[in-house]
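Recap from last week: sequence in, structure out.
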Amino acid sequence: MAKDRSRAGEFADDMRDRAEEALERAQTAVEDGLDEAHRFLKRQWRERPVAVAATALGAGVIIGLLIGSRR
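Predicted structure tokens:
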């Protein structure tokens, strides 16, 4: 009986370690993706400021209409 509990404990420890590693990899991937998106947006803002501003305005209007139409 104690042997089964020991195996269960080892299994739980192994699963916890794997979950922690997966979480760390996911956090790194998200951070890398956000950094890349930030660089892209900065580059676009320098190259096409009017287009970026118009896109942001359009997105804001659409979101506003969607939120406002739920009344």
